[in-house]
Amino acid sequence: MKVDKGSAILEFSVFFLLAMFVLTLILGVLPVFTQYQKLDYIAHEVLRDAELVGNTGSAVLDTYKDMQTITGLEPKDISFVGTHYIGGTKNVQINDPIQITVKSDFVWFSNFIGDGFNIELVATASGRSGVYYK
Rounded CA gap, 47 and 54, in Å? Predict the structure, then answer.
C-alpha cells in the first residue's frame, strides 16, 4: 500500500500558485491592450477628420485634442510623416496619402516591480485626402 497523506494539499497549493501567477499576468497585460486600443481609436478619428478637410492643420489638431479628452489618454507625439503636401502648405490634394502616427508610453507592471518596464506604443493610420485643391 502506498502512503499518499498530504499529496492533495501539495497539489492544491501548486495549482493555486500557478493560477495566481496567470491571473497576475493577465491583469498586468490587459491594460496594455486597452491603452493601445484607445491610441488606435485616436489615430483613426484624426485620420478621418484629415481626410474630410483635406489638410493637417489646426482643425485636425483640435480633433486630436478633443480625442485626448474623450479617451482620457495623453499621447506623447503625433506626426504626419509620409503625407504628401501641396508645396509648403498643410493641404493634401485629393487622393494623395495621409499617414498619421500616434505614440504613447506605457509603464508595464508598475504596481508589481518597482518602476516597471517602459513600453512605447505606436498606432498608425493611413488614408487618402478627399478634397480637391485648384
Answer: 10
C-alpha cell of residue 96: 494623395
Its pTM stands at: 0.82
Q: In whole angstroms, what is the distance from residue 55 CA to residue 88 CA?
A: 12
Tens digit of pLDDT for each residue in 24-45? 888 878 989 999 999 999 999 9
Cα–Cα dist 48/125, whole Å:
9
Pick from 12-26, 88-102, 110-124: least confident: 110-124
